[in-house]
Amino acid sequence: MQRYSGFGLVKHALNYHENWQRVWRNPTPKKEYDVIIVGGGGHGLATAYYLAKEHGITNVAVVEKGYLGGGNTARNTTIVRSNYLWDEAAHLYEHALKLWEGLSQELNYNLMFSQRGVLNLGHTLQDMRDIERRVSANRLNGIDSEVLTTADVQKLVPLLDCSKRARYPVMGGSWQPRGGVARHDAVAWGFARAADALGVDLIQQTEVIGIRKEKGAVIGVETTRGFIASKTVGCVVAGNSGVLAKMAGLRLPVESHPLQALVSEPIKPVLDTVVMSNHVHGYISQSDKGDLVIGAGIDGYNGYGQRGSYPTIEHTLAAIVEMFPTFSRVRMNRQWGGIVDTCPDACPIISATPVKGLFFNCGWGTGGFKATPGSGHVFAATLAQGYAHPLAKPFSIDRFYSGALIDEHGAAGVAH
Ligand SMILES: Cc1cc2nc3c(=O)[nH]c(=O)nc-3n(C[C@H](O)[C@H](O)[C@H](O)COP(=O)(O)OP(=O)(O)OC[C@H]3O[C@@H](n4cnc5c(N)ncnc54)[C@H](O)[C@@H]3O)c2cc1C
């Protein structure tokens, strides 16, 4: 990475950011690629990086309709954890967490990955039974996970209202110390820079508007800059997955919903872990800059607008104030929304499709950021080999025919 002296910084501040070196190229699309990835979010960029790095496939294009990381990747609240209930999901998310642990070094890019721990609160006896079940399942899978008492929780988060006065008193919680947060857009930029350096073409401001097939196999994509040929196309477009599938004559079991988040004005450090409550329905962490980063569940209606409804904002802030009464005095700075693609079992789809050469990686819903490196890693292997990576196999579209669903509603819920 380029370093500047104090003088260099002043010079660059005054020259209006002119003549800065590009971090990645801005290539003209070639006529044909070995693999086309549609969608330049974290998952698409990670896929391209691992295709080049692990499988030596460098004749790859990432086609992005906007700018890299401009979708959910840079709109999420950045929670990373792997404490899912079922083996299939736990293995996939733990694979991702292990990759996160060395990723800044691998990409030589500071992703600000901070393992500050993730706390899930329990407010009822049933919550606590579910927590104990999930923690036991996690430990059987070798995942760091603990059951905490109310006193443990209060010690960990002094500002949290653990009194009996609370409408839903805290009865305890689950705690994953290796969980945490990362800087979301840095993840996209880190993968983009590394993929570009390996020869991948990152093609921005280019929308895929059609998927061309011949004799039941994909032969390329129609874009706003013309046709680009490829016999292997991986669609990684999150909330737009249904739209892309329709272009290929397919129907996916996903629904697109707005999901909102908010940040407050920056305040002094008061919260050094991530706190989530499925029951009160809100979650919160504090960024390194000092903002409180807040979110909750999806807006109930389907939609493609990257914004959300007022009732959800009101409900979310009511939940935060219920947990942290003192935050009622903090002003909110910004609010935004993304479009998440939710599956009936709250698990992703990483799969081939009935169209030969056409693959989808989608359905991550409210919780795909944490999976970014793992998702890209297993999807790259799936595209390179033409059949599913062992960790991706349970997440095939076929599960919606076979009934082998992996119900992670308990571990997903409001807890992204
Ligand atoms: C408010 C909010 C909070 C969240 N919080 C968390 C969290 O705390 N932890 C967590 O793990 N997950 C969280 N998530 C979910 C997470 O953000 C997503 O699951 C993840 O970022 C998906 O990454 P992606 O690369 O698949 O999608 P995206 O980043 O959305 O990338 C898809 C890209 O495809 C592009 N695209 C779409 N259609 C086309 C087309 N036709 N042609 C070309 N390009 C196209 C889009 O422009 C976009 O850039 C949150 C999401 C939101 C919205």
TrEMBL record:
Compartment(s) of residence: Cytoplasm
Domain Rhodanese: 35-79
Cofactor: FAD; FMN
Swiss-Prot/TrEMBL catalytic activity: sarcosine + (6S)-5,6,7,8-tetrahydrofolate + O2 = (6R)-5,10-methylene-5,6,7,8-tetrahydrofolate + glycine + H2O2; sarcosine + O2 + H2O = formaldehyde + glycine + H2O2
Keywords annotated in UniProt: Cytoplasm, FAD, Flavoprotein, FMN, Nucleotide-binding, Oxidoreductase
Database matches in SUPFAM superfamilies: FAD/NAD(P)-binding domain (SSF51905)
EC id: 1.5.3.24
Broad class of the protein's primary localization: cytoplasm
Keyword Nucleotide-binding: yes
Regions annotated as coiled coil: none
Keyword Ribosomal protein: no
Domain of life: Bacteria
UniProt-listed NCBIfam families: soxB
Entry-linked PANTHER family: FAD-DEPENDENT OXIDOREDUCTASE DOMAIN-CONTAINING PROTEIN 1, SARCOSINE DEHYDROGENASE-RELATED
Family, per entry: Belongs to the SoxB family.
Descriptive protein name: Sarcosine oxidase subunit beta
Source organism of the structure: Balneatrix alpica
